[in-house]
Amino acid sequence: MTGARRLNVLASAALACAALAAPPAALAQAGKTTVTVGLVLEPAPGLDPTVAAAAAIGEVVHYNVLEGLTKINADGAVTPLLAERWTMDPDGRSYTFTLRKGVRFHDGEAFDSADVKFSFERAKAEGSTNKAKKTVFDNISTIATPDAHTVILMLDKPDGNFPFRMGENTAVILDPKSAATTATRPVGTGPYRLEDWRKGSAIVLGKWDGYRDAKSVAITRATFRIISDPAAQVAALLAGDVDAFPRGIGNQAVKQLQADPRFTVALGSTAGKGILSINNRKKPFDDVRVRRALAHAIDRKAFIDGVLEGYAVPIGSHFAPADAGYVDLTGVYPYDPEKARALLKEAGVATPLNVTLTLPPPPYARKGGEVVAAMLAKVGVVAKIENVEWAQWLGGTFKGNFDLSIINHVEPLDYLQYTNPQYYWGYDSAAFRDLARRHAAATDAKERQKLFGELQRQLATDAVNAYLFNPQNVAVSRKALKGVWVHSPIFANDLAAWRWQ
Prior knowledge:
- This protein is α+β, with helices and mostly antiparallel strands.
- It folds into three domains: about 35-40 and about 190-270 and about 475-500, D-Maltodextrin-Binding Protein, domain 2, CATH 3.40.190; about 70-175, Dipeptide-binding Protein, domain 1 (Alpha-Beta Complex); about 275-470, Dipeptide-binding Protein, Domain 3 (Dipeptide-binding Protein, domain 3, Roll).
- It has helices at about 5-20, 25-30, 55-60, 115-125, 160-165, 230-240, 255-260, 290-295, 300-305, 335-345, 365-375, 390-395, 430-440, 445-460; strands at about 35-40, 70, 80, 85-90, 95-100, 140-145, 150-155, 190-200, 200-205, 220-225, 245, 265-270, 275-280, 310-315, 355-360, 380-385, 405-410, 465-470, 475-480, 480, 500.
- The strands form six sheets. A six-stranded mixed β-sheet has the order 14-18-13-17-15-16.
- β2 and β3 form a beta hairpin.
- α8 packs antiparallel against α10.
- The longest helix is centred in the N-terminal third of the chain and has 19 residues, at about 5-20.
- The chain is globular, with a radius of gyration of 24 Å.
- This is ABC transporter substrate-binding protein.
- Keywords: Signal.
- InterPro entries: Peptide/Ni-bd, SBP_5, SBP_5_dom.
- Pfam families: SBP_bac_5.
């Protein structure tokens, strides 16, 4: 026997012994090509992220079924997706995107520049419900398509974050022939197609063999299970019914799951801003002194420790600590019940002040609502709790029909929503809009940084909402499942990068 052959035989024997020594469960997982993913909320009202605001839509379809020109990665870096590359003119107002060739939609239609033009004009159109309409698409003055694989976008105002915006789920590209039914039957260019949607229970995606890089996609089927209850989430993981909760797992279960050798529990950053949202249109909340009183009435640290098990940090404006140029403004409204009562008295508010606190299903809202209501009661604000389902929150609260609510805004750099007086909290400030305009137009790095800080301070000064917490991302997955994002710069699950090892 030659030396080389002897080595091959020994290596084969070693591998066989290793296989025999490996736990049966590990061997079974290594051969798996399917995955079950836990979701806290069901996408509502449908699966079209270009017409609805729910972040859960992106968790299912973004990058999997529907794609945009660019891709935001787990580290926040922006890379090409449907665009091979792009260039920006020096003034920051013109972007030229060169599109990939040979890309097709799931129904066989070819992808080209006409689809980009259609998608963005649809987002800009009167009556569009795209949540980025005013902040992104209304800023596009012209869309030129000199050929099938080139798109030139001219902006009214410079936007250095524009490539990032093109990677958000509001900017996915749809085909004119299938766009109208995206909410129920999304047709995209991504590696997966919708196979089944059992409302209230599960959504199933199947690998699309016509994808341009299908050979690199290891997961052939992904089932998203909707499990809102924290105890049921943990039970599903322990029973093996769910392989991963990329985000939203109940924080009280973290230590238990960390101690279980079957799981990887990773703590990462998010762009989330957990707030007590305030309806600035309604009396007495249209008085800044009342809004400031609410901010002083809430003990952020006690909220974070009691509701989020400590897995968050306090914030003082609608910005996350991971944002470049973040300013810590938590000291503007320290916990001070006496100050809160004094501000209410100064504003002429007779106590007890009766208000409604509308709470969507996530545990941070339901449990947090009880904590906030108890804190508000100490300053004479009696909050009647109204628990609603997610669709009700979107159809009522998000339309401006509310007093107070608790919600985690997960979109990155979404401060431009404060330039829209029609947004659900009803903030109307010419001063803030001017700051946003000047920041967008600034090309000097120091000036942009200065204005970015002023934007944050303006929101804190106006106490538009009571800013509470930036949550950590808690990603739980089975040890053998690789590719699950640790950080969540956006709410997405890049299934094409997942695999069992």
